[in-house]
Structures are given as C-alpha cells and as structure tokens.
Amino acid sequence: MVVLQVALDLVQLDRAIQIAKEAVEGGVDWLEAGTPLIKSEGMRSVRELRKNFPDYEIVADMKTMDVGAAEVEMAAKAGATVVIVMGTSDDETIKDAIRAGRKYGARIMVDLLGVEDKVGRAEEVEALGVDYICHHVGVDQQMLAVTGVEDLRSICKAVGIPVAAAGGLNSETVAEVLDAGAEIIIVGGAITKAAKVTEATRIIRKAIDTRSVIKTSLFKKYGDKEIREALQKVSTPNIADAMHKKGVMLGIRPVNVPAKKLVGQALTVRCADGDWAKPVEAIDKAKKGEVIVINSGSGHMAVWGELATWSCVKKGVAGVVIDGAIRDVDTIQQLGFPAYARNISPHAGEPKGFGEIGVEIECGGQTVQNGDWIVGDESGVVVIPKARAKEVANRALDVFERENRIREEIQRGSTLGKVLELEKWEKVQG
Fold it and tell me: What is the DSSP string of 344-392?
C-alpha cells in the first residue's frame, strides 16, 4: 500500500497537532514534524506528535547536514521512527546517522534536495544502507512550476528501496508520481492549507488509491500559459504579500465602485498632462487582453474618457491604469470597463502628440515595462515584472491558500492573534 505522509510545515505546534488530527481522520499514514516546526518548537514537536498519535509513524524532517548520530539520537528519543538526513551531507554523516538509527530504533530517509546527480547519489546512499530516498522539489522550485517527475522516474528505476516524492503534490499530481514509481507520497500545503483538512486529505487518499487525477479548485501550480488564470483567483493584497510588499502602485484607485477586476499585460504610454494623443494611439497598438498603463505626470487634466473607453471595449483591451486624470466616469462605470486612475477631472487637454508608447515608465511609484503583468481590484493596483510572473502568481496562490486555513480557524472561534501566536513571535528587542 502506498504511504500518504503529511508534512506539518508550520511554526505553531498547537495548529500542527489540530491539523494532524484532521488529516488522520482523512486517511494519512505518516505524520511529519516539518523543518519549520522543528526549528520553531524543537524536539517538543516530535514528542507531542508521539504523545497524540502513539500508533503512527512519526517522521522528523531534521534536514541533517552534520553530526548525524547526535541529531538522529535526539529525534528518535523524542519519538521519531523516521529521520531525514540531507543527501548533500558527507558520507560519514549518513553512515553515523544509520548507526544511530539502528541503535535507537529509527529508520533513515535521505532527501536529495540540492543534489545535482540525483540518480548517482541515490545509488550511493542506498549502498550505505539508508532505508528510504526522497525526491524533493523545493518550495522555491515549485513556484517556477518545476515538477522533477523524470528525475523521480530515473531514481525509482535505479534503486531497490522505497522512494518518497515531495514538493507541491496534490490530488491532481499524485497519479503522475505514482506512475513514476514513488511509494511514499509526501503532501504539505494541499492538506495543511486546506480549509477542510479531513476532506482534502480524503480526496488525495482517493487519488492515490485509484491512481487517478481528481480536479480541485486550488493547489494547482501554474506555468506560463496559466498565469492569467492564476492572477484572476488572487487579490492584490495576496500579490503584495507574495512580493514582500513590492509592486504596489501608490495613489492609483479604481474608478468603478465596486471595482472591476483587472488582469493583463501592460502596454505602456508616457505623455504630458492633458495630452491624450498617445493614450488614444495606444489603443490601436494594444492587443486583446492587454492593459494600457499611462504616465501623464500625475496631472489633473484628463487623458482618457468615454470615447477612448468605447474603443477599448470594442477591441477587447482589458483595462487602463493612469497615473494622471480620467473623465466621463459615469459612462465608464456603466460600461463596466476596468479603469484605475490617480485623479478624476472633467477637463481634458489637447492631442499634441508628445510622448512615447512601449517604453519604460513610472506609474504610482512603480517601474512598468511592456509585458509586465498588471492586477487591479478594490484594494488598488500592483505590477508584476514579466520575468517573475509565474513565480509570483504561484506565491500569491500560496498566500491565498494559507489565508483560507487561517480564516477557517478564526470561524471556529479563534482570533488572528491567537492563530498566529503574535506575542510569541514579536521581534525581541535588545
């Protein structure tokens, strides 16, 4: 039977225990004290998992790189039955970990994260005597939609011990790694970030047992073609959090109330205050689904109005963002066209034609280049550099999913401060 292991990669032990209880109800086999949890709570996390789940395999993701015997001993004495050591560590570290594991009753899993020759290293550590090998796609790689399935397949063919697969797995992707030969399926966020953990676990368990793809509304890692779909699902606050508060256009607000969601790649325009020639010319150059982003010097004479909006609606332009002024707001609202601007003014200037289209501009204090992704909603507008679009889209989804779980815990009667243990995690002053 294929093993389903949940990686409890949280920093709050109480939350981890509660999620573990719900995951067990859903059909999880092994419980992992994830590295963030171990770094946050130490061996107490392993002890508490053993206390609450005496009949379950407890995995300690120590990510050991040195002093293998000492770290395996402490994890095993705390109640771990499987301890994870890094494949990039020295052979002597792995050998000593194996010796300690045999002495204290723990099996050793080697994680190949960061190893270049994964097949070669898998064969080497198998020869050393480890019990399991883990093919692990790291979180930062997941954000770039890396799957590593072919590496996994090659590892499974090369070794005779069970191989675990970890990294962004969910009910849509477990069938693929099972087909590649994995016998242990390690799932993190698709369980721990779910609002309904038991239900999410059952779906993944079913996908494993039936070796089938079960579509879900979340937990999909998006590639280049699906960026727009991903960005439609998340909010500008989600994106701002994912970008560490970068990319927010200050002072740019939606014209429509409530705001019309805006997602698309930028076509940039630079013009003078009130000179609406280049903004209008940009409509003819814009492709369907693009967003016209205009810098008119934060001015108060409109460079955009009803007729420009009608032209965009007919052509399929996704929206407009203006660091300057817009007018005819009533008609734009009636048309439902996504429009964002710094200022609203009835006064328009003249089409003098000064300016440029398709050049780097500043908008709301942010640099915008052609092809950058623009997202707008009720909270404002953010810009995502096109080179980071896939990564940021996936990180924003990660933020969105984590908030779903926190929201569920608050609805059960907790508070945000209690869920996040804010006082405990306040920066120590010294």
Answer: E-S-B------EEESS-EEETTEEE-TT-EEEEETTEEEEE-GGGHHHH
Instruction: Using CA atoms of 399, 400, 406, 411 in order, give the dihedral in degrees to the nearest 10.
Output: 160
Residue 289: pLDDT over 60: yes
The phi and psi torsions of 299 (rounded to 5 degrees) equal -75, 180
User: Which residues contact residue 387 at a Cβ distance below 8 angstroms, ignoring those fewer than 6 apart?
Assistant: none
For position 126, what pLDDT does the model report? 97
Q: Could you tell me which residues come within 8 angstroms of residue 165 by beta carbon, excluding any fewer than 6 positions away?
A: 134, 135, 152, 177, 180, 182, 184, 185, 186
Angle between helix 149-158 and helix 118-128 axes, rounded to 10 deg: 40
Partnered with residue 186 across adjacent β-strands are: 5, 166
Longest dimension (CA), the chain: 84
| DSSP character at residue 178 | H
Q: Are 34 and 59 in contact (CB under 8 A)?
A: no
- Rounded to whole angstroms, how far apart are CA atoms 196 and 201? 9
Question: Could you read off the pLDDT of 204-229 as tens digits, one per residue?
Answer: 999 999 999 998 755 455 666 789 98
Domains along the sequence of the chain with CATH: 3-210 (3.20.20.70), 226-390 (3.50.30.40)
Residue 428 pLDDT exceeds 90: no
- pLDDT recorded at residue 218: 52
> Rounded to whole angstroms, how far apart are CA atoms 402 and 345?
41
Residue 77 vs residues 33, 50, 91, 273: alpha-carbon distances, Å:
14, 11, 23, 71
pLDDT digits (tens, 9 = 90+) for 374-388: 999 999 999 999 999
Write out 62-124 in H/E/C secondary structure.
Answer: EEECCCHHHHHHHHHHHCCCEEEEECCCCHHHHHHHHHHHHHHCCEEEEECCCCCCHHHHHHH
**How many Cα neighbours within 13 Å face the side chain of 222?**
24
Amino acid sitting at position 166: A
pLDDT in tens, 221-267: 566 678 998 899 999 999 999 998 889 999 999 999 888 899 999 99
This model's pTM is above 0.85: no
Mean pLDDT throughout 311-315?
96
The answer to whether the CB of 91 falls within 8 A of the CB of 68 is no
